[in-house]
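Team,

Forwarding the record for the chain on the shared tracking sheet. I've put the sequence and predicted structure together so nobody has to dig through attachments.
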Amino acid sequence: MPFLLLLVAWLSWGVAYPVTGIALGGFDVVTLRVLVQLLGAAAIAMQIKLTGISFAVEREGWPDLVVTALLYMTVMPLCMTLGMYLMSPGRTSMLIYTMPIWAALFAWPMLGERLTAARLGALTLGAAAVITMVSQDLSNLRNAPLGAALALIAAMAFGLGTVWLKRRDWRANSSVVAFWQLVIGLMPLTLIWLVFSFPPDLASVTPAHWLALLFLGVISNGAAYFAWFRLVRVFPASVSGIGSLVVPCVALSTSAWIAGERLEPHDLSAMALIGAALAIMLAEQARARPRTA
């Protein structure tokens, strides 16, 4: 069952990158994020109701729930979507999944995990990947440097949110935690939407854009977060590294297929550097596991 959940998360998030590119052809960035999270919250709420689970969360868990919601469901998705709009889906996915490197850095002060030479080396490789990617000629894109910066902010929020979530032993059901995070994260997004994007211009929205929105809301939010919050409980921290190795590969291949994104040598080099960084971290975690077992 856990490995089936991994497959759901990998495919849902990997395919989401080119599908988001399609959806952005009809919706503006903030409107898309608001609608996607509304659909995701509705899908998880339906699952909770059908299974008869309580929506209650332990009172002492609410401060952590709010912090992780703002990181996971406000900062991360908004910066990620803006990054895709300014750069491209495949390139954004490579930067988002430097997440385990940032998680390792945050885990040092928050969880007492030592910042080892391997983690420092992985961080250096990740930084080299970013430099490699933005150093190429990306003048055909809207604003690649800003897009890369926003994608890295999203990766940091993703990593910090994962570490913060693991600080607490949650008594509430994983679906309930996911639902409330989507709802809480939606609140500041809605305020931003009302100020900058209301009323939305839907004149150019086609059936393909609506289908992309439906996929992103129900599958890439509803199903993926249903799987992810269970994986965070079941697997050790290395699951983030494993997922990070797979998701950009799915995103790059589907971006080339669905969105026609052309991959340049710089992109492949950057992906190789990120893969090497993540492999270093996975190897370190694999060596540490027998000692902690």
